[in-house]
Amino acid sequence: MYNHQLRVYGEYLAKEQPLPQNSQSVGNGGGQRAGSMLGAAEVVFTASAPVALQAQKAVSFGLEESDDNTSFTPVPITFRLATGTTARAWEQGDIIGRLPLPSELKRYVRLTLATDDAAAKGSVDAAFSYLPR
User: Fold this and answer.
1) Total structural domains in the chain?
2) Deepest of 2, 5, 14, 16, by most Cβ within 10 A of its Cβ?
3) Percent of the residues in the chain that have a pLDDT greater than 90, as a whole number
4) Contact 105, 34 (CB under 8 A)
């Protein structure tokens, strides 16, 4: 049962979204309903095309929440991965990281992506993965 994920078909916070280069962007999946999940899901970040970061650089993924799917505020949790002294790469399908969802989220959630690497390459998918209970 390793590497299996339970997802809602076609429900992505980001789908084949290029990594921002030395900047931040909002997930191209827009706001998705996430309220009332009560901690039963996490967001999984997967390389949808080969991803590469240079040495001493970082990629981070965060969440923003909203009651009305219009006005979003940051959720105080983030996934951040720094490369250290050597460059790092992920092949298509590799999981880059996971971010648990707080149980008290507002009704809608959207993704934020950021890198401090002007040469960041590749694109990612971000989707809810439901946790077994």
Assistant:
1) 1
2) 14
3) 72
4) yes
